[in-house]
Structures are given as structure tokens and as C-alpha cells.
Amino acid sequence: MGYIHFFGTTGNKDIIFKNIRSAGGLYININDTHVVFDPGINTFYKYIHTYGDKETIDGIIVSHVHIDHANDLNIFIELMTNGGREKRGSVIAPKQAIDNQILQPYLENFPEKIENIEPNTTYMIKNLEITASIPHDHGVECYGFTMKTSKHRIGLVTDTRYFPELLNSYKDCDILIMNVAYYINNKEKAKHLDILAVEEFIKTIQPTKVIITHFNKNILSENPSEIAKDLTKKYGIEVIAAEDDMKLYL
Ligand SMILES: [Zn+2]
Predict the structure, then answer these.
(1) 231: CA distance to ligand 1 center in Å?
(2) Distance from the CA of 233 to the center of ligand 1, in angstroms?
(3) What's the CA-to-centroid distance between 106 and ligand 1, angstroms?
(4) Fewer CB within 10 Å, N or C, the chain?
(5) How many angstroms does the Cα of residue 150 sit away from the middle of ligand 1?
């Protein structure tokens, strides 16, 4: 049926600099469709190391332009299009990625399609249906997504401050992959979710499986796998703390 490969599980600079965990996105292999999601620092190297240059990429999605989500976007466009020799594949990215030339202008004609993300809008990448959320609150233009497969609706809850309206965008999901930087977030101007927000998602949406990832120092010091175990016990659903290079089979 497919799988999601977690190349990295942090976005925090200190953790990246000390090489404790890798930044880096996801490789989604579902419905015979291959998508690179949020290609941050190191994603390209990890991808090539694992899959080489023979596997075809059908699309690249960038949730927002921060370096831990978009650093390797351009080299993946080169790879997807065989260095511009084959016009193919889709790029789905915030308008800001084009406006700020995060996506290098010389690459704009390489993919078959470049689509700016619009809220609550559904896109097709080959056989994979993917719907953007309402705008997240993260200081830059940012969206999460849900993906539909024959058996599941999978939510990719990317970087954001928590606010209740978020829940609506993910309400049909049975699997949630959530970027959770904090254990308990006590910063007033937080730009990331914490475990209290995860509990709101679990209580409201009632998924069967939740994967937490994108950890900063605050949550790593509390041991994410212990937190996941506690949540599993508390809510009777499967909660998993992602590890670098983990594959989630669907
Ligand atoms: Zn971010």
C-alpha cells in the first residue's frame, strides 16, 4: 500500500549543528506516487543515499520557506527533471517561495507544474490526492496537508502555533503526523505545537495513530518515546515518536 520515510526529525539549529538528529523531510511512497515533502537540510543527501537517482519523483511539496523545510528544494527539482532535460513533475509551494526566489528562477520552467498553495484546496500529484489546510500561524506563509489513500486520510500537521480552528482542517484524519517542537510550550509567542496541542488533536479528531516529530531541545530532554508511551496509555491509540530514517508502513 505504501510507506512514509522520515529522513529527519528536527528543525532545531542546535540539534542540527551538533548532529544529534537530522533536519529533513519525508519521502512519501503511496498509490504508486512518489513525493518529497519539506526537503530541508540534508534531505537530498539522504534521499540519494537511500534511493539513488533511478527512482522517479512525481512531486515536491514545501509547507513553508524555512531552511529546515525548503533548503534542498532546488536540487530536488533538478533531480525530478533530470537536470532540466525532462519537463516533468509538480512543485506545490507557498507563493512566498517564488516571490522570495527560494525556488531559483532558472528552475521555474523545469517542472511540468508549479502550483502556489491556496488554503483548503485539493491537488493531484499523479495518483495522490492532497489537500492544503487553512493557513498555519508560523510567522511565514505556512500550510499543512491531508492525503487520501484507499484506506486512510493522513494529516501532515506542519509547523504552527496552536489555535482551535486548526482542528477543522484535519478532522477526517485517522493518522496524524505532527510537528511537535515543545513538550510544554510556555513561550508567549510560540510558533510550534506542544504536547497539550497534540492532546487536543487526539481528543477532537480521534485518530487511530499519531506520529510526533520535528523535535527541539525542550521535548528531546523529556524523551519523546516515553511521552508517546504515556499518550498511548492515556488515550488507547497508537502514538509513535519518530526517529531519523524511520519508515511508517501504511
Ligand atoms: Zn518553520
Answers:
(1) 25
(2) 30
(3) 25
(4) N
(5) 30
pLDDT digits (tens, 9 = 90+) for 122-166: 999 999 999 999 999 999 999 999 999 989 999 999 999 999 999
* Residue 74 bridge partners (DSSP): none
Q: DSSP secondary-structure letter at 29?
A: E
Where exactly are the structural domains of the chain?
2-242
Q: Which residue has the cell 503526523?
A: 177
Distances (CA, A) of 28 to 63, 114, 118, 126, 207: 14, 19, 21, 12, 20
pTM beyond 0.70: yes
Q: How many helices (H) and strands (E) does the chain have?
A: 9, 14
69 CA to middle of ligand 1, Å? 7
- Provide the pLDDT for residue 114: 97
Q: Facing residues of 33 across strands?
A: 30
Q: What is the pLDDT of residue 186?
A: 75
Collect all residues with Cβ–Cβ distance below 8 Å to 184 and sequence separation of at least 6.
Answer: 194, 195, 196, 218
Query: What is the 73 CA–ligand 1 centroid distance (Å)?
Result: 15
CB 153 within 8 A of CB 146: yes
Q: How far apart are CA 226 and CA 217, in angstroms?
A: 15
DSSP class of residue 92?
E
| Burial class, 188, CB count within 10 angstroms (exposed 0-12 / middle 13-18 / buried 19+) | exposed
**Ranges of the chain with pLDDT below 70:** none
How many angstroms separate the alpha carbon of residue 142 from the centre of ligand 1?
8
CATH code of the domain made up of 2-242? 3.60.15.10
Q: Are 226 and 232 in contact (CB under 8 A)?
A: no
